[in-house]
Amino acid sequence: MKKRFAASAMILAMSAATVLSPLTTFAEAEEQELNIAIFQGGYGDAYWNQMVELFEASHEGVKVNMTISPTIGDIIRPQIVAGNAPDFICLNDGGEDGVILSLIKEHALLNLDDVFDGENYAGTGTLRDDITDGILSSTKCAPYGDDEIYLAPFNSGPQGLIYNKTFFDENNLEVPKTWDEFFTLGDTLKDIDGRALFTYQGIYPGYMEEMLWPAIANECGEEALTKIANYEEGSFNNEGVLKALTHIKEIAEKGYLLEGTVGMNHTESQTEMMLGKAAFITNGTWMENEMQDAPREEGFEFAMAPIPTENADDVHYVFDSCEQFSIPAAAKNPELAKEFLRFLYSDESVSAFAEASGALYATKSAREVAKDKLSTAIYNMYGIYEEANASSLIMSFAAVPADCKINPKDEIFNPITSVMNDEMTVEEWAQNVEAAFAQVRADMEAAN
What we know:
By secondary structure, the protein is α/β, with parallel strands linked by helices. The chain has 19 helices and twelve strands.
């Protein structure tokens, strides 16, 4: 299933001198303390321990007090209520503890526009220009829909069409940019070796969000996803969405889906793809680690492509995941917290994180900055952001009431099996989702 890379024991050795900000030093300032709260997930704590050490060494008079835990939300919640909020938080808005969502709802996070409109840590331009396109304007960073930034992006995880770069290179195949090119390639593949065009993790159809959301954004614009995420009437049953759903159905309808796909689990379909039974599969960068012991065709090399679009010069949306940093509005040392945030986007920090985790910060230069710390597969897959007109796309549903029996994602993705088996039309698919959204709206109204 979907997972992140475990942190390695290897940590980059760096001197404090290499991370001194050319813009800001605290050498002559009074002694200051920075209290940071860090969620400890699969990446471990080695990277964060190193960042604390380097930040203190490069900012004379600064003492960083770090609390790091897998249950950091439960630890800081009573502190926030008591008026002792940390200065800096690394915790996602999707955490089960609900701490960040509560801070968003209460407008209790510091506006970070000045950080991103200011110079980056190296003093070579604005920090905003360093961030991967599309992320800062998403609800992950601008939660109120007004493009004002209250959460900063940490790492990003692109998801798209995984393919075997070696096979494409050896057969002089171009990665398709449009739906027409995609289906034409399906015919070409039949002549080369008979492999199918596409497969997916059949009994786990939620993986198809990596195709569906970019396809809808291409047909309707990103604003359409905001409407869907908020269960607006008509948001899932309109001309643009139906066109995107039709492209998905056409994969099976026109004979391009690997036989047996709908009955496979994630490892089975991924293995079939790696053995050369299908050219593409929807997935993310974690697939390399997840399938490290799986059999594969000779010379297999991971690469990732965006979902096809109607026109070659359209925006090519890359479905993305993004963890977050934030600074509470009640932070006692907000300016030092902002300096720490800028520091985390430095090349040295980005490189150290890549070595410790195998993942990358959500910056445009991260792939090249950390190239020598990444496997060939991860380097190739993160290259998806460098495709022409590529833009990050993040989809996050509004929370449903606690007693609501509707799971929006299940209502959207579970029907894919019936659609691929020609047991349901795309119109029925859309109508069923609209009915589920109507129930969610009713439950939300009743809860208020």
